[in-house]
Amino acid sequence: MHLLVLDVGNTRLKWGLYDNPRPGADLLAGGAFLLEDVDQLRHALAPWPRADRVIGCAVAGAVVTARVCAELDALGLRCNWISAQAEQCGVRNSYATPSLLGADRWAAQLGARQRVPGQAAMVISVGTAVTVDCLSRDGVFIGGVILPGFGLMLKALEMGTAGLRVPEGEIVAFPTNTSDALMTGGALAISGAARQMHARLQDLAQGEVAVLLTGGAAPKLRDALGLPHRHVEHLVFEGLLCIAVQQTT
To answer: Following DSSP, what letter does each residue of 191-211 receive, concatenated?
Structure first.
């Protein structure tokens, strides 16, 4: 049996294919492309075994999701689009209205629970937006924060100031050019928020907190984060896999 997982974010569509899906299974194949190129999905899947099931999360809106569904229809496939639940895969949702939590954030929490069962965890997802979400030792999603990602921060500065259209810079200790100043400022803003949330969760948990860093722009933050952490490239996929396995048992 082959399971196709889809993560339709604000900027990119990520896909992964599992063979014989089970807890802890490794990806057989995967890839990503920009949302304007979703018509590439069927071509990307063509070299691989046909999926028997499809499960996904989407935050890009109805129009993009419909385009993805059209691609799947052409392959004779239909996606089970998830939404956040009150409780699933060992995680309980503290949102007042559970379904209003982003499906990708929920899937990442489920993935984190599988990665570090019985331990408090903080998931930092760095994409178009950045989310810093906290999971208690006993499996309660207790909340999190959302802030702009690197690209949105730079666009905001470009729109609000004159002369800041510069090449992408590097993260350095003491920037001496505008490009590096912008990139380092963004990294420190994100890492500062993450460290504050980590301190709050550590106080609440009264013990060690596992920090999981994920998302397409995660590599930009690794050196600036200032917290021991584990980089998990496909945490959302791991949550989707957990849901799919649970639904078949």
So the answer is: HHHHHHHHHHHHHHHTS-EEE
Is it true that 2-81 and 117-150+177-240 share their CATH fold?
A: yes
Task: Select which of 104, 133, 138, 180 is catalytic.
Answer: 104
Which of 3.40.50.360, 3.80.30.20, 2.40.37.10, 3.30.420.40 is the CATH number of 2-81?
3.30.420.40
Residue range 217-228, pLDDT digits in tens: 999 998 899 999
Between CA 33 and CA 205 the distance in angstroms is: 38
- Both tokens assigned to 210: 């596992």
pLDDT 10s digits, 154-205: 888 888 776 667 778 899 999 999 889 999 999 999 999 999 999 999 999 9
CA distances from 224 to 22, 112, 237 (A): 35, 22, 25
| pLDDT tens, residue by residue, 77-134 | 999 999 999 999 999 999 999 999 999 999 999 999 999 999 999 999 999 999 999 9
Q: Residue 230 and residue 105: Cα distance in Å, rounded? A: 17
Protein fold of 117-150+177-240 = Nucleotidyltransferase; domain 5 (3.30.420)
Torsion angle, alpha carbons of 206, 207, 212, 213, to 10: 70
Distance CA 48, CA 70 (A): 19
Which pTM value belongs to this model? 0.95
To the query of whether residue 73 is one of the catalytic residues in this protein, the response is no
